[in-house]
Amino acid sequence: MADPRSPVSSAKLHHIGVACRAIDGARRAWELALGAPCGPIIEVPEEGVRIAFIRAGEPKVELLEPTGPESPIAKFLDSRGEGVHHLAFSVADIDLALAELRAAGVRLIDERPRERGGNRRIAFLHPKGMAGVLTELVQYATAEAEREGY
Hints:
Elements: E1 12-19, H1 23-34, E2 42-44, E3 49-54, E4 60-66, H2 72-80, E5 83-90, H3 94-103, E6 114-116, E7 120-125, E8 135-140, H4 143-148
Parallel strand pairs: 1-4, 5-8
Antiparallel strand pairs: 1-5, 2-3, 3-4, 6-7, 7-8
C-alpha cells in the first residue's frame, strides 16, 4: 500500500493527451462532445508539437499536433494513428515523486523535470514501466498557475 504522505499518492488525473494530425480538424468534434471551447493553440518547439487544451471540468483534454515528421507525436501517429497518447497526473512535488518512483524501480523517461513556461514542470514515465501507458507528471508553480495555465 502506498504511503498517503507520498507525492505520488496525492496525484490526481490532470489531463488526457490525444494525438491528432491537425488540431483544427479535431477540435470541432471535441468542442461539440464536451460542450466547451478549445483554448489557444500553443507551440512547444523543443518537443516538436502544438498543443491546445479543452477545459470541460477535470480532467482536461490536451490535443497534440506534430510540427514536423520527426517529432515524437508524428512518429506516434505513424505507428498507432490518432488517439490517446498519454495520461497526465498533477503532483505536489515532482522531484520527490520522481525520486520515489525511481527508488521503486519504475522506468523513467525524464530523470529530472522539464521546465515549461516558468509556470509548470513536467516529467514522463516510460510506458514499459506503466503497463503500456505513457504517463506524464505535472507540477505547477502555484494553484493559480494551474487554473490559468495549460
